[in-house]
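Much of what follows relies on a compact textual record of a protein's fold. A record is reproduced here so that you can trace the correspondence yourselves:
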Amino acid sequence: MFIAARPLPADICDLLPCPPPPQAFVISFTSDFIPRLVYQYMYSPDGSMHGFVNHTLSYFNVSHFQERTKPLDPLHLGYQVDLCRYKDYREPSWSQTPYEISKEYWAVLAARLAFVIVFQNVVMLMSAVVDWLIPDIPKDISMQIHKEKVLLVELFMKEEQGKLQVLDIMSEHRNGKDAWSKCSPRPRLRPRLRPGIGLAPTPQNPTPH
């Protein structure tokens, strides 16, 4: 004899892939997809990706190093280094606000957030269209479920009608018994005689002489 356990329903979150917002944030903030688009359509002189790497690097003056962070050997490369490059969107050292966040940073950040919103709305719209085109329950099964509901409602109505008929019959029977008890004559009670006391003889009519 084999005993099979009923399979437990799995959580819907375990079956579905990662929801749209985390995917949009991963694509937008952990890759160069958005910075490349921003550079190509806003800062590139010819609409190509030529010069993209140079655009993402900022300038730093090595003379601005703190005392304990300066290179031990400034001539390690064989020549004096005055400027170095690092990946960030900041103002150069010769600007009025050195090393502050540049306007390119805010442009890229706005593009990243816009991409998240657009990506989420597009995914939700496509999900709604797919749900509308492909229903969760097939049409024949939904019709069968509808018929079962109609049959259950009819059965319930029949049961309620049967209960009402039984109640009507019981009330009519009770009303008929009460009417019969009111119309039937009451039995006369015979007087009880006390011991030692007799009934007075009734006078008889004298016979005519």
Remarks:
- The helical segments are 12-15, 20-29, 33-43, 52-56, 103-133, 139-183.
- Confidence is low (pLDDT under 50) at residues 1-16.
